[in-house]
Amino acid sequence: MFNLLGDIDNQGLDFTQYTQNVKPGIIQEVQDFIEELEDVYTNISSQAMDHIHSNEIIMTTGLSKTVELFLKLAAKKRKFKVIVAESAPSFSGHETAKALAAAGIDTTVIADSAVFAMMARVNKVIVGTSAVLANGGLISSNGIQAMAEAAKHHSIPVVVCAGLFKLSPIFPFDEDSLNICVAPDPVLPFGDGSLVPHVEVINPYYDYVAPEYINLFITNHGGHPPTYLYRLLNENYDPEDTYLLKE
Amino acid sequence: MENKTSSNRAPKAGGDQPLPAKPKDKPAKKEGSTAKQEKAQKKAAAKAARAAGGKDNKPKGKDTTSATALAESKKLPLVAHLEERIYPPTTAGAPPGVHPLVRSVGLQFAEFKICGSNARCIAMLQAFKQVIEDYQTPPYTTLCRHLPTYLSPQINYLVSMRPLAVAMGNAVRFLKLNISFLGIDIPESDAKQKLIEGIDEFIRERIIVADRVIVQYGLQKIQDGDVVLTYSCSSVVKAVLLAAHQKNIRFRVIVLDSRPLLEGRKLLQDLVDAGIQCTYSYLNSASYVMKQVTKVFLGTHAVLSNGALFSRAGTALVAMTAYDRNIPVIVCTETYKFTERVQLDSFVWNEVGNPHALIQGPGEGPVIANEKAPLEQWESSPNLRLLSLLYDVTPTDYLTMAITEVGMLPFTSVPVVLREYRI
């Protein structure tokens, strides 16, 4: 998709003239891209058996369909336990936990505060993400940076499941500009009238996770270390695309 | 003292005879342990069912009608060795000899109405003062021999309501030591007077004056323009911050908090009332807010002799996040919280909180207040468990300095203090 126009041999083409053979090409590329998106989950979860062994304890947080399907597929053949941090104040971890438990996986929900304590017994941290940045960092749901740091302290591998379409050419020069702070009400309810006017309440939606805390990306094109992402980036984006973004 | 006002809430003084259990509402699934425990559970359930109508102070969801132990299948094997409690807590299991004030204090501990090592320790010691005052040495025995045997069921009862804090353990040890120092021939009233004075002195010297000294040290560490981050609610950190504000130091405070206890809100309220500029967020935002922080001030539950902190769950995450960004982590603690014990992980000794609290919001109802609240039926789902750990162990590497009443120390000096001061 990203190389759409570049793929077509434009040697000797006059762009001012109407050309007939571009349209089917574009349609084909879009079709391919749709298929890639449709197969993302299957392509990623099919690698689950390569990464999850019997009787292991996996920690995750937040709500990620990619991770959910990844774990569910592994659970078909292997028995393992999952610890889910609840991810306050969105509590998206609760939904993940419910889905995993329904699929027969032994699931334990913990408060976010217990992440460091539980990490001592965890074998792998598997999380999803909203975007993968050019340096191999993540923009993912709030709390994952702390979890990844705790994992690093215990020398536990952090695995990120993400389709390649989440790869972005943006480089996080200012990581805060990539984050947003959403309504503070779930953190400190507006109903607590006496406090609210006097306090600055912060409820960041995303979390920037630095690449040094990540051990492996599992994409629909296989597993890659964060250091390899620049190569994937080159394959997926024309340098001109990233240039255009800056305009 | 909070315990004075609510002592009338303690049901019948010493008269809870072990009458044959008549369970109106059996616990859903009993832990298959000793018969004694089963009996206690049945009694607790029956009592709770009786008391359910009159209790309006516990928004514990729809299960308030029955005190239930957690089913065996819902316990995480990892922490299976930790004591399990019955929710909601009742004083029904108390043996006959337990003093009504101790019952009341125990219930307030179990309900987290009195929370925090210092508050709990003071409440316990105040109750014991009353116990000692009301105590009569039986004939043919002496106070210093008999009082410890009278006190131990009181202590055991408190432990059954909520495990004693390390600091409380130290206080109990101090009290027992004081009793053993009493001579056999000292008149009873003098002995009691001496013990009560001893307790008062302990509270004054080890907690109240110690806190004042810590505040003085702490003040040296807060300067104009500082952004101080603190986690949860520590009484001594609060005292330091309030004193700094009173000294007209211009600084800002970030209060991080975590569910399900949300203790940080108490701290936040007090700081805001004093007029300190505050920011509030959940623990998950630690890495987001840490960029602006210049110092982290933490309180603690106990300091282990290897220099690690045993503190409210989440403290380790905060200290780690700060350490990774080269921000000093300063821990304010009285030395009576130091303990000889060493612990390498957070499971060997810990406390498991009410798992139901994880799905309940701070008010009534579930955290996600709509029809799709995902975990509402968690108890009927065979593969799902909820675990609420109350404490964690913070490795000593993350901690920069301890402020104690004996000075500002590196954490490597904890065993030295323990040895030199014989705490």
Automatic annotation (TrEMBL), chain A:
Q: Where in the cell is it found?
A: Cytoplasm, Cytosol
- Keywords associated with the record: Cytoplasm, Initiation factor, Protein biosynthesis
A single GO cellular-component term from the record reads: cytosol
The UniProt entry, under Pfam families, shows: IF-2B
Q: Which GO terms describe its molecular function?
A: guanyl-nucleotide exchange factor activity; translation initiation factor activity
InterPro entries found in the cross-reference section: eIF2B_beta_subunit, IF-2B-related, IF_2B-like_C, NagB/RpiA_transferase-like
- Family assignment from sequence similarity: Belongs to the eIF-2B alpha/beta/delta subunits family.
Q: How does it assemble?
A: Component of the translation initiation factor 2B (eIF2B) complex which is a heterodecamer of two sets of five different subunits: alpha, beta, gamma, delta and epsilon. Subunits alpha, beta and delta comprise a regulatory subcomplex and subunits epsilon and gamma comprise a catalytic subcomplex. Within the complex, the hexameric regulatory complex resides at the center, with the two heterodimeric catalytic subcomplexes bound on opposite sides.
> What is the official name of this protein in its record?
Translation initiation factor eIF2B subunit beta
Gene source species: Dispira parvispora
The organism that produces this protein has a lineage beginning with: Eukaryota, Fungi, Fungi incertae sedis, Zoopagomycota, Kickxellomycotina
The gene name reads GCD7
Automatic annotation (TrEMBL), chain B:
**Residue ranges, annotated region (Disordered):** 1-69
Keywords recorded for this protein, A-Z: Cytoplasm, Initiation factor, Protein biosynthesis
Q: Where is the composition biased (Basic and acidic residues)?
A: 22-41, 53-63
Pfam families per UniProt: IF-2B
Q: List the molecular function annotations (GO) for this entry.
A: translation initiation factor activity
Q: Quote the Gene3D superfamilies the UniProt record gives.
A: Translation initiation factor eif-2b, domain 2
> What InterPro entries does the database record attribute to this sequence?
IF-2B-related (IPR000649), IF_2B-like_C (IPR042529), NagB/RpiA_transferase-like (IPR037171)
Please give an example of a GO cellular component term from this record.
Answer: cytosol
Q: Can you say where in the cell this protein is located?
A: Cytoplasm, Cytosol
Q: Does the keyword Flavoprotein apply?
A: no
Q: Does the keyword Protein biosynthesis apply?
A: yes
- What quaternary structure, including any partners, is listed in this protein's UniProt entry? Component of the translation initiation factor 2B (eIF2B) complex which is a heterodecamer of two sets of five different subunits: alpha, beta, gamma, delta and epsilon. Subunits alpha, beta and delta comprise a regulatory subcomplex and subunits epsilon and gamma comprise a catalytic subcomplex. Within the complex, the hexameric regulatory complex resides at the center, with the two heterodimeric catalytic subcomplexes bound on opposite sides.
Q: Which family does it belong to?
A: Belongs to the eIF-2B alpha/beta/delta subunits family.
Q: What is this protein called?
A: Translation initiation factor eIF2B subunit delta
